[in-house]
Design goal:
Blueprint: E1 39-44, E2 53-60, E3 63-70, E4 79-88, E5 91-92, E6 96-97, E7 107-113, E8 119-125, E9 133-141, E10 144-150, E11 159-165, E12 171-177, E13 185-191, E14 200-201, E15 212-218, E16 221-226, E17 236-241, E18 249-251, E19 261-267, E20 273-279, E21 286-293
Antiparallel strand pairs: 1-21, 2-3, 3-4, 4-5, 4-6, 7-8, 8-9, 9-10, 11-12, 12-13, 13-14, 15-16, 16-17, 17-18, 19-20, 20-21
Length: 299
């Protein structure tokens, strides 16, 4: 499915944004306006709720792989565990441990997968760091993840991670913190041409003065979490049609975005449901929420 203009079902006023080159640093905090379908329900996914904080989630086979963060003392990095939860219709199965088989000493915090589910992109803590990341790639052989290698495109950054690849497998989106700019994480893109090419800032008024992180893809629409794009407060879910020449960014709506921190969003293939990781304003952990729209979210 190739998307044209991203449209609103509920009437909404839209903003105007300046086009920037892929090599420039776009840092606008313009107020955004809601676009997308009216959301019918955003509810806590109690099957995944426990004492640990949910950190990242990605589609895999007939379900999702997600990571849980178990925080330790301030002097120690958190521990991360990975689980697979199968989905049958609207029913979520009991989560099972998901084996990464990461090399000794490597500490993955999040994973995503190629469309054929044979390649995994793992965000890992840099050695000795609690907050800086790099990206590894692993391949599935005989149902075991092996051949772990750090991606060259991640090495020039102070921190880089949370990579996702489009359906064709020729374009990657990631978030990274530059060693030159000191304004937080931004969304970058890389093309595959006999290897992943140098990552450059994504085109358009997408990046802000705050942290722009956790990109996900629905066909040609990019979803991400922004700390300074305007909206309901805290981090908000923003989305943009990458096929739109103007690259206008839109707020995902006040049922998805709240005064809490919305960390990431996945829109499912049905274009009417998805998952959201949200940090509660007071609680010390993030939870997974299920999103249901009353019509197609993207038209």
């Amino acid at each position: 499915m190739v998307l044209g203009t991203v449209s609103l079902i509920a009437q909404a006023k839209k903003g105007t944004y300046k086009m920037n080159s892929e090599t420039s640093k776009s840092k606008s905090a313009s107020k955004l306006y809601e676009r997308g379908s009216t959301i019918k329900d955003v509810s806590l996914l109690t099957q995944l709720s426990n004492t640990n904080s949910k950190f990242y989630i990605a589609p895999y086979e007939h379900g999702y792989v997600y990571s849980e963060e178990k925080k330790k003392s301030n002097s120690q990095a958190a521990d991360y565990s990975f689980y697979f939860v199968g989905v049958s219709g609207n029913r979520f199965d009991k989560p099972k441990t998901f084996a990464l088989n990461a090399p000794t000493g490597l500490k993955p915090v999040a994973v995503s997968f190629s469309n054929d589910r044979l390649t995994m992109f793992a965000t890992c803590l840099k050695p000795g760091s609690k907050t800086s990341y790099t990206i590894y790639q692993a391949n599935k052989q005989n149902n075991v993840w092996s051949g772990w290698q750090e991606l060259e495109i991640a090495k020039p950054f102070e921190s880089a991670g949370f990579a996702v690849v489009n359906t064709a497998g020729n374009k990657m989106y990631l978030c990274a913190k530059s060693k030159i700019y000191k304004t937080g994480y931004d969304i970058y893109t890389s093309e595959y041409n006999d290897g992943w090419q140098k990552a450059i800032l994504v085109q358009g008024d997408i990046n802000s003065d705050g942290d722009d992180m956790f990109p996900t893809l629905f066909n040609d629409v990019l979803f991400y979490s922004s700390g300074a794009k305007g909206g309901e407060g805290g981090k908000d879910i923003i989305f943009v049609n990458l096929k739109d020449n103007n690259r206008e960014c839109f707020n995902a709506g006040n049922k998805i975005n709240t005064n809490a921190g919305e960390q990431m969003m996945i829109l499912n293939e049905d274009n009417k449901s998805g998952l959201l990781i949200r940090n509660a304003p007071i609680a010390t952990k993030a939870e997974v929420f299920r999103i249901v729209a009353d019509d197609l979210f993207i038209k």
